[in-house]
Structure formats: structure tokens, C-alpha cells
Amino acid sequence: MAPGISLTRIPGLVSNMLNRLGGQPESYEKKANYRFGRTLGAGTYGIVREADSADGKVAIKIILKKNVKGNEQMVYDELELLQRLQHPHIIRFVDWFESRDKYYIVTELATGGELFDRICEQGKFTEKDASQTIRQVLTAVDYLHQNNVVHRDLKPENLLYLTKEPDSNLILADFGIAKMLERKDEVLTTMAGSFGYAAPEVMLKRGHGKPVDMWSLGVITYTLLCGYSPFRSETLQDLIEECTTDKVVFHERYWKDVSSDAKDFILSLLQSNADKRASSEEALRHPWLTGDTATDHNLLPEIRSYMARAKLRRGVELVKLANRIESLKAQEEDPENSDFPVDAIAAADQSRGNVPSASGSGAEPGKEKRTLSKTIKGAIFKEVVLAKVREMRQQEETKKVAEQVEKEAKEKGSS
């Protein structure tokens, strides 16, 4: 044996040598530290999977290099940003590594569920509870803004409870499109945010900055207090018009038991003029966040109603998720070292957390494949019906146009 090499280091050295022979980067050996489980989600650039490690469960974002070719800086920026952020209400960075064709970003795994799902499991959720929930989110946003970071995609799906414990922290996740400003007054111009939560200046492409996060927080707060969004337009143009009128309506039926301070807090955030919108610092000083003026009105019935309406929409999202997984799998350049699930539909179904992952759990071959869930079936049925309705309307309009043309031709012929 060569002097200076211990027996305990031999497996690592062999693994490292094999990786290099296979053309893998040096950091790829870290992949052996993780055992991949169910798929948690998928986007334009890759997927997110749950994984087991020596220190517990983690989430691993897997990004296809070919999908960010020429825009690799986006991945490096996210990595740098995650490593800098240290806050109890922000997802914690764990590690990163790469392969020939992918980047892997490892973060802590939030297992306590999404904000609205978690609330629905409770026996009661009052306005006071809502004020303290929003305060947790706002402290995270303020920390970001103090460090010149704009999240740009605040929405309920990105607000997760770290654990299932009753006193678990609510944490802010998904920094995929977050930006670190080089200057406090730097203006961002790329599209960002999610439909219904994006600020007017983003939709109008006028340039934006930290105030976009405050607008999104205003939408989240409004929805949390009444069970529906302040802006309900279904097209971008209609939504822009609705968001720029500065007319936020508090319907008496749903808002009569909500404090005036809560409404004032929301109005301070939902200002179409970004310069008039409350900053994170100003919002934190708002009296509603102390909870002293918030009522004990139970919001649970409205929130459960909101979640019931969202159920079918989630089914549609699961179908889209399955399609994205299939599309990403087809783009994978190293199928021998695949990180994508074999069965995209089963993976989408498991993403809800209802189905234990067969991957790495000792399940028998073939057990991973599952039938479509009722939710996905319902979503597909809805999509088929809507497509048929659109087709029938189009045929009807075409028929009307044809009849009109024929009528005009006859009139011309008789004249």
C-alpha cells in the first residue's frame, strides 16, 4: 500500500476515480450521500425531489444544464443567495453538487405542509392568528429587503411549515427567481411572480424592485382573512385594469367581523403606485401586527371554502406536473444516471404527500406504478369538457360567420 493512504479512504478514492473516468465533476461524489425519494414538484428547468441523508430528509432541486445553457449565472446567483441567507423563517441551504448534465441544490425539507393546508387541519384560526402568521412572513421579507434581496414570487404555495409540530416556524421557500440587487435603487425588468400575486409594475413591464414583495403580501393577507382573492380577473389585461384602479373592496358579508386595522394594513400594501406602498420596515410597525386590535373572529370556514374551490385547480396542476416531468425526462442527456421518475403520473400523484415513495423504500418492482388518483381524473375530465365546449363555441361562431357571408352574398346577388 502506498504510504500515507489509510484503508478508510480507499472507497472514497475509488469512487472519485470512477467518477472522473466517467467524465463526472469532482463534486458528483456527494450524490452518494443522498437516497432519492418522491418528486415534490417540477418547473421549466428541472424537478425537486425529496431525499434521505445522514442528517435526515432534505429537498434537492435538480436543474438540467441544457435548459439553462447561456444563463448559468441564474443558477450561480441562486446558490450564492441561498448560502448567504440565515433566518429562522427562510429555507436553509444544505449543499450543492453537479454532474455532467445537471446541477443539484440541496436545502432543508419543510414537512409541515403549505400554509392554507395546515390552517384547514386546525379546529380554529382567528384574525389574531392571521396577524401573527403574516408577521412571521413579513420578518422574513424584511430580512431579505435589508439584505437587498427581492423574492419576486411570494404566494401561499411558497409558505411552508418546517415541521408538523404545533409551534413550527413558517418558512419562505423557492428562491428560483429571487434577485440580489447590486444597488438599493436597482430596477429589475424581467418578468416575475405568479398570476394573481404579481404587482402591477411587473405586469406592465415598467421595472420593479422590493415593493413587488409587499404587493404580493397584501394579496396573501386579504385572501387569508376572507377566503378569496382581492383580484379575480382571469386574463392578464383584465387583471392589470383591476389592479391599477386602487379600489380594494371589502365585501360586508365576509369582512364585517374583521378589524379596521387589518383592512388598513392591506390597503397600505395594495397601492398600485409602488412609491406609495408600505415598505417592509413600515409594515412591521403597523399596529395590526401586534395582534392587540385583531378580533377573535374564526376564519376557518372561509379558508376551508377557499381550499375546496382550489381542489379541482390543484388536480389540473397535477396533470401539468406530470406533463412537465415527462418533458424534462425526454430532455435528459444522461439516461444511465437518470434522476427523473419512471412513471410521471405516479410521481405527480405522490407529490401531494399522500402516497409513500417506492424509490429506495424496499418496495417490490412494479409497485411504484399507480392508477390515476380521483383528483387527476377529475381534472382531466374537466380539461376535456372545457376543450369540447371551446370547440363547440368555435364551430358555432364559424357557422354564424358563414351564414352572415352567405346572406350578404344573396343580398348582393338580388340587388
TrEMBL record:
Enzyme Commission (EC) number: 2.7.11.17
Pfam family, one: Pkinase
Residues noted as binding ATP in the record, renumbered to the chain: 65
Entry-linked PROSITE patterns: PROTEIN_KINASE_ATP, PROTEIN_KINASE_DOM, PROTEIN_KINASE_ST
UniProt keyword list: ATP-binding, Calmodulin-binding, Kinase, Nucleotide-binding, Phosphoprotein, Serine/threonine-protein kinase, Transferase
UniProt keyword annotation of Signal present: no
Stretch forming the signal peptide: none
Domain of life according to the entry: Eukaryota
Polar residues composition bias: residue spans: 351-360
Region described as Disordered: spans on this chain: 350-374, 395-415
Domain Protein kinase: 34-289
Catalytic reaction list: L-threonyl-[protein] + ATP = O-phospho-L-threonyl-[protein] + ADP + H(+); L-seryl-[protein] + ATP = O-phospho-L-seryl-[protein] + ADP + H(+)
GO molecular function: ATP binding; calcium/calmodulin-dependent protein kinase activity; calmodulin binding
Matches recorded under InterPro entries: Kinase-like_dom_sf, Prot_kinase_dom, Protein_kinase_ATP_BS, Ser/Thr_kinase_AS
Similarity comment text for this entry: Belongs to the protein kinase superfamily. CAMK Ser/Thr protein kinase family. CaMK subfamily.
Protein name: calcium/calmodulin-dependent protein kinase
Lineage of producing organism: Eukaryota, Fungi, Dikarya, Ascomycota, Pezizomycotina
